[in-house]
Structure to design on (256 residues):
C-alpha cells in the first residue's frame, strides 16, 4: 500500500552538520521507486527549503508548521497571523528588548538591524541575519514570526497572547504561529489534495513542533537525537540522524 511519508528537515532529514546523509537520499529515492509519496513537513518557510526540495525532487510540503501548504508546487492552504495581533506582540516585545523576525513564503525580515540572539539562532539554519524592515507585517502576509527571548522569559507571551501559539525551537527563540496551526493541521489539508487516508501517513521528526503531527499520523518515527517528549510519543524510535537513522527506519518499516 502506498504511504505518504512526511519528513521533518532539521535533525531528521539533515544531520547535525545540516547535510543530507547519502543513506537518507538513497532511501528516499528507493521509497519513491517503491510507490511511496514524499512530502516535507517543517517549521521552516518555503524560501528556506528550496535546495532540499530540488535535491530530492519533492514538490509537496507543509511549511511554517502548517501555515503554508503546497501540493505539486501549488499553494493549497495559507493562514497568516492577524496583523493587529502581530502589532501588539511587536509593541510588547519591544518594551522588553526582545527582537522579532517576520516571515512570508519568500523571505524573512528582522525588527532590528542586528541582534546576537537572531544571529545565533538563524545561523543554526545556515542562513544570514535577515535585513531590517520594521513595517513588513503591515504590508505583507506573515505566516510565522519568531520572538527572541530566553526560556524563563517565555511564559509572559503565552499568558498575554492567547490568539497565537509560541513553540520554542532554540535556546533563544520561539516560533509564533496562529492558534492551533501545526504540522498536524497541515497534514489534514495535504491528504485531501493527495488522496491518501490518514492511516497511510507516516511522520518522521525529532522536535517539539513534531508532536501533533506524530499524534495525528497513522504511524510515527522519532529520531534518537530527538526531544525526549517526541521519542515518548512516537510509534517507533530509530537511530541518530548522524548514524543513518532515517535509512534504518525506512528499512525497519519495509518502505525499502
Amino acid at each position: 500500500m502506498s504511504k505518504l511519508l512526511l519528513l521533518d528537515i532539521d535533525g531528521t532529514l539533515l544531520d547535525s552538520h545540516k547535510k543530507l546523509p547519502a543513506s537518507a537520499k538513497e532511501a528516499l529515492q528507493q521509497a519513491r521507486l517503491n510507490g511511496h509519496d514524499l512530502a516535507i513537513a517543517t517549521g521552516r518557510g518555503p524560501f528556506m527549503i528550496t535546495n532540499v526540495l530540488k535535491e530530492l525532487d519533492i514538490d509537496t510540503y507543509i511549511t511554517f508548521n502548517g501555515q503554508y501548504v503546497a501540493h505539486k508546487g501549488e499553494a493549497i492552504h495559507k493562514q497568516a497571523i492577524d496583523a493587529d495581533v502581530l502589532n501588539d506582540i511587536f509593541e510588547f516585545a519591544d518594551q522588553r528588548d526582545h527582537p522579532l523576525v517576520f516571515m512570508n513564503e519568500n523571505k524573512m525580515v528582522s525588527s532590528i538591524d542586528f541582534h546576537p540572539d537572531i544571529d545565533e539562532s538563524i545561523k543554526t539554519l545556515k542562513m544570514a541575519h535577515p535585513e531590517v524592515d520594521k513595517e513588513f507585517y503591515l504590508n505583507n502576509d506573515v505566516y510565522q514570526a519568531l520572538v527572541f527571548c530566553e526560556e524563563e522569559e517565555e511564559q509572559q507571551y503565552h499568558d498575554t497572547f492567547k490568539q497565537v501559539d509560541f513553540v520554542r525551537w532554540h535556546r533563544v527563540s520561539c516560533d509564533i504561529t496562529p492558534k492551533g496551526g501545526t504540522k498536524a493541521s497541515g497534514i489534514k489539508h495535504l491528504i485531501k489534495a493527495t488522496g491518501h487516508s490518514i492511516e497511510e501517513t507516516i511522520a518522521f521528526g525529532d522536535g517539539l513542533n513534531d508532536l501533533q503531527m506524530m499524534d495525528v499520523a497513522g504511524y510515527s518515527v522519532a529520531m534518537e537525537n530527538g526531544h525526549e517528549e517526541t521519542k515518548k510519543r512516537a510509534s517507533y524510535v530509530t537511530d541518530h540522524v548522524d548514524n543513518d537513522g532515517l535509512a534504518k527506519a525506512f528499512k525497519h518499516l519495509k518502505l525499502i
Notes: The first helix runs from residue 22 to 33. The mean pLDDT is 96.
